[in-house]
């Protein structure tokens, strides 16, 4: 957009400079032409008067003397034809076609004293002519050669001055166009950045009110709208977190009452009914835990996105770590649950040298734990592999299994909140695990990628960009 606006203003500026320069140069050419024409016509009239006197007296000596003096002074030829002969000076003769034409027109009593407008480039001279005599009789014709080289040199000097002035004016106008473009588009760019920030983080900073009045009003309106949207999003997030947290107390009290009630129940039917209620209560507790974790993860992702809009330097707060100890600890923690489900967890050998990544260790442990629990729950009896590797310049945490896996459309929807595959409806779960991992990965500058494992199964990868040298120097790798 900047190039388009600047291009239009530049074209208008150049067009204006060309029009102004054209008018100035045309006026200069006309002025010099008129100046030369007035001087030469005056000289021609004086020579014609002397020629008339010579024709009346029958003595052309004084006329020839005047003609020679003029040609010697100005370097221009003169030709005067009298009834008894033709006088010449400065090398002007009837051999030139333009001189013959001028004499013929003057013989018809047609004065030709108009010069064509001067052009800065070119050579050669022009001739002007007039007749002299009485009112009823033409006694002769006077032709004067006009040397235009001096006038052309003056015109070229003016062209040079005007060209330099035009260049300076054009530079000033282009600079002004660039400043006007920045002045007009700066609020637009800020507004675009604010929209991107609002989309990514749910909040945005207040826009400065500058630029044209219409854009200042637009900035004020957007700031008000963004503040309202941010407050609404934050209120919704806080409502979910507060509600989930506040429900913990009544749910805990309800569990205690059910436990006490089970002690009083006598028949197996009553015990079975109480067990069903307890199972549903545990499901509610799992869902509340999942909602709290998801709310915390989304809040972390929002904070990280907000910091990311400040520039690359904001990402340097995370020190580079060796993720292998975290993977080892989470694999050991999930081992008993895997054995109960008939699955096995295989921890791959650590890479040498270690692959470092910039991530919060506690959040990395939570992500790996969620992926392991997901594999144990939905790929019962499968072989689960956990490892870290480097791929295409990125550090990758990989948790894969050889279970039934997910179809392509199911993998695309797996990070949606409360989404569950139709084939897993009979398995206890709340559909929040992958959403939590996806949000925490984004909060740490990474991303969750789900892919099919050959010949079957699911490959869950968390990809992190390789840390910078500065991040690696912030702390030693764990190991």
Any key phrases for this structure?
Beta-Lactamase, 4-stranded antiparallel β-sheet, Heat Shock Protein 90, Helix Hairpins, 5-stranded mixed β-sheet, rod-shaped, 11 helices, single chain, alpha+beta, 479 residues
Count of the domains: 3
Order of helices and strands: HHEEHEEHHHEHEEHEEHHEEH
Q: Compute the number of strand runs.
A: 11
Strand order across the biggest sheet?
6-8-9-11-10
How would you describe the overall organization of this protein?
The structure is a single chain. It is built from 11 helices and 11 strands. Helix 8 (361-378) runs antiparallel to helix 10 (433-443). The strands form 3 sheets. It has a 5-stranded mixed beta sheet with strand order 6-8-9-11-10. A 4-stranded antiparallel beta sheet has the order 2-1-4-3, with helices on both faces. It has a two-stranded antiparallel ribbon with strand order 5-7. It is rod-shaped. The chain starts with a helix and ends in a 7-residue tail after the last helix. The chain has 479 residues and is α+β, with helices and mostly antiparallel strands. It has 3 domains: 2-155, PAS domain (Beta-Lactamase), CATH 3.30.450; 213-308, Helix Hairpins; 318-472, 2-Layer Sandwich (Heat Shock Protein 90), CATH 3.30.565.
